[in-house]
Amino acid sequence: MKKLFIAASLMLATSASFAQTNATDWTATDCSSTSHNLFTDLNAGKIVVMVWVMPCGSCINGAKAAYNAYQSFATSHPGKVVYYLADDMGDESCTDLNTWITSNSVGTLSNMTVFSNSGNVIKESDFGGSGMPHVVVMGGTDHKIYYNKKNSATNDLSGITAAVNSALKTTAVSNIANNISFSASPNPATNTISINYAKAVKSISITALNGQVVKELNMGTGKVNPVINTADLSAGIYTIRLTDAEGKTGLTKFIKE
Q: How far is 189 from 181, CA to CA, in rounded Å?
């Protein structure tokens, strides 16, 4: 019955994206007996790459593309992006899922979280219906969905990677309280940029458009109007996050030529 159901869904929606814009919450226990809550993860700033599988032969490429996209951020954003794989209907054991993942080289088990989805608590229907596989990328305190595709359309390494980058970019800015105002000059900058702020600055981080932190500076007890070396940065637009000696934070952008 399960195979017939999946075959029908493949014929009806071979490459459709679902228009849902926000995730639906769930709480589930993984195959290591650890409980997870989706909104808790998203509110903590994590980007969740979620994959439902049957598992089946047609699930392999999409699940693998999602895993490879997730793994591409392991060094630049350690712990920030997570990969969750779940059985679609909750009727496969953890042993069978792990065997399918390993035998089909979908990814490394130690680098992912697997759910047998017993009781079907991670409902694929809450994210736009059935398709094998089904890949969703989510992030931010608004629980936004950045990618939602099914079936053969999920064999899309570049699309999933771009969705994760978009989520990282958004959460890098939205998760920071913008309590203070400051400026940076010159803007555009070449080799250096000066921070113009009346109080002592305790720390500064610079983030690229893809959400990657490219420079972090700790100034101990604080420094007034610090100068930052930008010569080693590639041309582009960056966000400066400043934290002053009182713990207040603010953001501004600058262009590196």
A: 19
